[in-house]
Amino acid sequence: MRLVLLGLPGAGKGTQGDRIAVKYGIPHISSGSLIREVVASGSEVGREVDSYTRKGELIPDELAMQMVYERISKPDCAKGWILDGFPRTVLQARALDQRLAQIGLDVQMAFDIRITYQEAIERIAKRRMCSKCGAVYHLEHYRSRDMSVCDNCGGELYRRTDDTEETARTRLVVYMRQTHPVLHYYSMDGRLYSINGVRPIDEVFADLDHYLQRLAPAESVGDAL
Fold first, then answer.
1. Separation CA 180–CA 175 (nearest Å)
2. With contact defined as beta carbons under 8 Å apart, do 143 and 115 qualify?
3. If we measure between CA atoms, which residue out of 23, 26, 48 comes closest to residue 35?
4. Residue 88 bears catalytic tag
5. Which among 88, 126, 128, 199 is annotated as catalytic?
6. pLDDT tens track for 3-37
7. What is the dihedral of CA 34, 37, 42, 44, to 10 degrees?
8. Which of these is catalytic: 13, 19, 23, 71?
9. Is this model's pTM higher than 0.90 or not?
10. CATH architecture group of domain 2-220
11. Which residues contact 39 (CB under 8 A, 6 or more apart)?
């Protein structure tokens, strides 16, 4: 099961990716988490990635592709993987297909979790994250029991510095310019599935799962969160 999650910032890709990972036993690989892991590894690739992130620059396509390909080549990805935040450009999507084709694989499904611009801005501005485990909460729709503490690990919740309305609007513009064309790339050969993301989390997951069950044998399926 090889999946790509797409959608505006704040669409819920991370939340749904975690649920898919639990039910189907495949790793959820978010670009942000992957960058942190690669940098922390101290590898040559990690040092090169760090040189760009420290300056606030985008990681070049070739380096991003190398980073992702190394991750999906690890043993825990033998049954599949979920990419969240990659590919961010058509060039990256095409390069990923080319690399996978060399070993007889492909991206099987790409999901566009659709929300409105206004919903995206509101979700980002009201998002809170755990300082320890990275769990994501929302001040209204996905609250922790105590909005200052994470339900999972007790870590302190905080607002990321880029989770503001102004930054959200900038990120939406960048997404539409760079990443929205990726939807058309996957739609051209029937791999894109559109999901209404402006609904409760369980309902969004139910729609995703409807399609995913086509790919997974019954014996490999566990329970979702």
1. 6
2. no
3. 48
4. yes
5. 88
6. 999 999 889 999 999 999 999 999 999 988 898 88
7. -10
8. 13
9. no
10. 3-Layer(aba) Sandwich (3.40)
11. 46, 47, 49, 50, 53
d(C-alpha 188, C-alpha 192), whole Å: 8
Q: Which one from 47, 159, 160, 177 is the annotated catalytic residue? A: 160
> What is the C-alpha separation between 98 and 76, in angstroms, rounded?
22
**DSSP states of 126-145:** TEEEETTT--EEETTTB--S
* 45-70 mean pLDDT: 84
Write the CA distances from 95 to 5, 59, 66, 160, integer angstroms: 17, 15, 10, 31
- How far, in Å, CA of 142 to CA of 177, rounded? 29
Q: Which tokens is 39 given?
A: 């940098």
CA distance 92 to 78: 22
- For the chain, give every domain's residue range: 2-220
Whether 160 is catalytic:
yes
What is the torsional sign of CA 43, 36, 52, 17? positive
